Amino acid sequence: MLKNKVAVVTGSTSGIGLGLARQLAAAGADLMINGFGDAAEIEALRQELASTYGVRVAYNEADLSIAAKATGLIESTLRELGSVDILVNNAGIQYVSPVHEFPLERWDAVIAINLTAVFLTTRAALPGMKERGWGRIINIASVHGLVASADKAAYVASKHGVVGLTKTVALETATSGITCNAICPGWVLTPLVQKQIDALAAKENISTDEAKTKLLSEKQPSLQFASPEQLGGLAVFLCSDAAAQMTGISLPVDGGWVAR
Ligand code: NAD
């Protein structure tokens, strides 16, 4: 379905981004992967993705907290793979602290990676998409783009910002064959969430399993984590013709979190 399309997935060396990259490659898209990690492990992953799915896979190490690198990720993809047809803005970080103690440098880092980088990659990818008359921009926001939780000021602000940016880009591209949508996951078990589970277990002196159950029962009525594969399936759907008239929306995948 996505043969001859090139997908850039930011932050795809682990977690949700890797799940999204796998599903897009399984649907036939060539890939530009990005993110941090051990160089040898990333090269092994690059080769494994290429051979498993029979697609071209390149890697770019851009640190998206640096504006020139975020733009450079798109420029490198155009040079190495020829186009950017699908842009999945997935890279994101979290920092947990009450507002009155929130360090400015953590605020700046969260906003830079979770929000400003989304603006920069989108700005760089749009001219080519417009020229080709087709494009899919999928922003991995969060339920925290729709509702808030205490102690996550920068994350909640950045994800609400992504939801707003998604709507603006959708309006600006509405007649261009381009769609721009956000996916809003609830809890997904990835390294980012594992850190919060470990912190909760340590703080409350409970086991990791108990901490997982506590985390889920506070917010996610299904009491189950969403999976990177499920999010990948939704991303592939958003790239399909069936979704060509869906734009500017934010889709929760959250086991009922925002239904409460
Ligand atoms: P993760 O920590 O497992 O993966 C994050 C990825 O981003 C990694 O590949 C990492 O190397 C990369 N990354 C981090 N900083 C980067 C930077 N400066 N430049 C380039 N790459 C960078 O996290 P995850 O849980 O898979 O989260 C992915 C996205 O999903 C994030 O935007 C996150 O906010 C969002 N999300 C996650 C959950 C969840 O429950 N895990 C829920 C809602 C939304």
How would you briefly describe this protein structure?
With 260 residues, this protein is an alpha/beta fold. The chain folds into 2 domains: 6-186 and 226-250, 3-Layer(aba) Sandwich (Rossmann fold); 188-225, no CATH class.
Protein model, in words:
The chain has 260 residues and is an alpha/beta fold. The protein has two domains: 6-186 and 226-250, Rossmann fold, CATH 3.40.50.720; 188-225, no CATH class. It is built from eight helices and seven strands, in the order E-H-E-H-E-H-E-H-E-H-E-H-H-H-E. Strands 3-2-1-4-5-6-7 form a seven-stranded parallel β-sheet, sandwiched between helices. Strand 5, helix 5 and strand 6 (178-185) form a beta-alpha-beta unit. Helix 1 (15-26) crosses helix 8 and helix 4 (104-132) runs parallel beside helix 5 (153-172). The chain is globular and about 55 Å long. The termini are far apart. Bound molecules: nicotinamide-adenine-dinucleotide (NAD). Residues 11-17, 34-36, 63-65, 90-93, 113, 140, 142, 185, 187-188, 190-193 line the site of nicotinamide-adenine-dinucleotide.
